[in-house]
Write a structure and sequence with these properties.
The protein is 0% helix and 60% strand. By secondary structure, it is an all-beta fold. The chain folds into six domains: 73 residues, Immunoglobulin-like; 90 residues, Immunoglobulins (Immunoglobulin-like), CATH 2.60.40; 90 residues, Sandwich (Immunoglobulin-like); 73 residues, Immunoglobulin-like; 89 residues, Immunoglobulin-like, CATH 2.60.40.10; 92 residues, Immunoglobulins (Immunoglobulin-like). The protein is rod-shaped and about 170 Å long. It starts with a strand and ends with a strand.
Length: 554
């Protein structure tokens, strides 16, 4: 006890750095403070504890972790305490034939050995002397003192780690001795709802009577108070302590020779209690800030500590903490999804501690990352509109057409899973043409995409072929403009039967919806005739005609 201790273990975890080290005591994570120092240098993990006491006894775990896995080793620390006297026997004056008791309170690691001596000579139990050692209290009692019992009494205690002793003097007098306190009341702190046992030790001639006072008002035995006076010990027990029991308590003792009094202040402390707890769950939009708030009652000073996933949160620009007028607040700024977790508010005061928790979930709103703006289709066919989402699922997805919500039916098959939303429309007709709105939302936002369904239009001539008259040997060109759903195929016919193909003298093009038939040169009478342009797509076809006339040269 009171010495320093150092625990070391060498990390042998296979895999690449970085290696993180965590120390635990009795399976609870240890953090560095004024008495605990943690280091990890050259693959040696070290835990150093300064000025150990009994509370440091326990099982210690060193946990090493990297991407490959976790390895643990264990050690048990037992703090040995030397024998020590914490309450010494008091010197007393006693009247002949009265009883007397000397007491000492000790601490130390068992086994503790005790003995009493008078004037340097060990005392052995007899019909005149009794000795006991229970609950670390050693007592020596003489039932009826005589003159020869006066002298120096020594108490000794020892164990394997040390020893301690104290002296007290007993004077046996033949006159009445006024009472005096050998153990007085002291300042006392107790928790609301508990009980307290106040005890005083008195020397002086028996019989001794005792009175108890609370702030000057005498106390009587009742269900609340129990008063006891036995020989040289007087006590007051107060049950079910309330805040109103905080007071100055006085014990007054008297006998035929005089009286004495001592006082002590009792403070009843209320442990912290949450009168307004954190809400069970808090959902926050990524990038936003949020505020957690709870209200605490209890005796001062109350200390508030915030934890995230069992790790204490230090104050920072991201985490701003206040505790004003019994209200504990943590404001968390610029939150990301990685900040999600279990947040705990722990309140502590000298009377106890309590905590409440909430689950903070940081979510990203849905955003449509991919969707078809326009889909062309034919009547009596099927069409699917499919959208891709980003954000934090689950999403609630709803489809609308003309502000009317669509539901799965024989006509519509609606599906939504993770980051994919779709609607499948069966047997498309003219009433299905138009804009479809897909709305996705979660607890922190929503987004909408618009998809348009159009019927595929059959080809139509915007400008038709014009008949031409040209001079033999000159070039010529027939041209028409078309609109309609792509792809459009173009075919040229002569006299509605002969399919015209490209050659050295003929060039056929279809560019920017303009169909062109070019005769490059050397036109003669054989090129005259009726020319037809036939256009077609999946929705239908159209045609137009023109007459090419070739005149002889002058």
């Amino acid at each position: 006890k009171d010495s320093d201790v150092e625990l070391e273990c060498e990390s042998t975890v296979a895999g690449s750095p970085p290696i993180s080290i965590t120390w635990l005591k009795d399976d609870q994570i240890l953090d560095e403070d004024d008495s605990v120092h943690i280091s990890f240098v050259n693959n040696v993990a070290t835990l150093q504890i300064r000025s150990v006491d009994n509370g440091h006894s326990g099982r210690y775990t060193c946990q090493a972790k990297n991407e490959s896995g976790v390895e643990r080793c264990y050690a048990f620390l037992l703090v040995q305490e030397p024998a020590q006297i914490i309450e010494k026997a008091k010197s007393v004056d006693v009247t002949e034939k009265d009883p007397v008791t000397l007491e000492c309170v000790v601490v130390g690691t068992p086994e503790l050995k005790v003995k009493w001596l008078k004037d340097g000579k060990q005392i052995v139990p007899s019909r005149y002397f009794s000795m006991s050692f229970e609950n670390n209290v050693a007592s020596f009692r003489i039932q009826s003192v005589m003159k020869q019992d006066s002298g120096q009494y020594t108490f000794k205690v020892e164990n394997d780690f040390g020893s301690s002793s104290c002296d007290a003097y007993l004077r046996v007098l033949d006159q009445d001795i006024p009472p005096s306190f050998t153990k007085k009341l002291t300042k006392m702190d107790k928790v609301l709802g508990s009980s307290i046992h106040m005890e005083c030790k008195v020397s002086g001639s028996l019989p001794i009577s005792a009175q108890w006072f609370k702030d000057g008002k005498e106390i009587s035995t009742s269900a609340k108070y129990r008063l006891v006076c036995h020989e040289n010990t007087v006590s007051l027990e107060v049950n079910n302590l309330e805040l109103e029991d905080t007071a100055n308590y006085t014990c007054k003792v008297s006998n035929v020779a005089g009286d004495d009094a001592c006082s002590g202040i009792l403070t009843v402390k209320e442990p912290p209690k949450f009168v307004k707890k954190l809400e069970a769950t808090k959902i926050v939009k990524a990038g936003d800030f949020t505020r957690l708030e709870c209200k605490i009652t209890g005796s001062p000073e109350i200390r508030v500590v915030w934890y995230r996933n069992e790790h204490e949160l230090p104050a920072s620009d991201k985490y701003q903490m206040t505790f004003i007028d019994s209200v504990a607040v943590i404001q968390m700024n610029d939150l990301g999804t990685e900040d999600s977790g279990d947040f705990i508010c722990e309140a502590q005061n000298p009377a106890g501690s309590t905590s409440c928790s909430t689950k903070v979930i940081v979510k990203e709103p849905p955003v449509f990352s991919s969707f078809p703006p326009v889909v062309e289709t034919l009547k009596n066919t099927e069409v699917s509109l499919e959208c891709e989402l980003s954000g934090t699922p689950p999403f609630e997805v709803v489809w609308y057409k003309d502000k009317r919500q669509l539901r799965s039916s024989k006509k519509y098959k609606i599906a939504s899973k993770n980051f994919h939303a779709s609607i499948h429309i069966l047997n498309v007709d003219t009433s299905d043409i138009g804009e479809y709105h897909c709305k996705a939302q979660n607890e922190v936002g929503s987004d909408t995409c618009i998809c348009t369904i159009k019927l595929k239009e059959p080809p139509r001539f915007v400008s038709k072929l014009s008949s031409l008259t040209v001079v033999a040997g000159e070039p010529a060109e027939l041209q028409a403009s078309i609109e309609g759903a792509q792809p459009i195929s173009v075919q040229w016919l002569k006299e509605k039967e002969e399919v015209i193909r490209e050659s050295e003298n003929i060039r056929i093009t279809f560019v920017d919806n303009v169909a062109t038939l070019q005769f490059l040169n050397s036109l003669d009478s054989s090129d005259m005739g009726n020319y037809t342009c036939v256009v077609a797509n999946v929705a239908g076809s159209d045609e137009c005609r023109a007459v090419l006339t070739v005149q002889g040269q002058c």
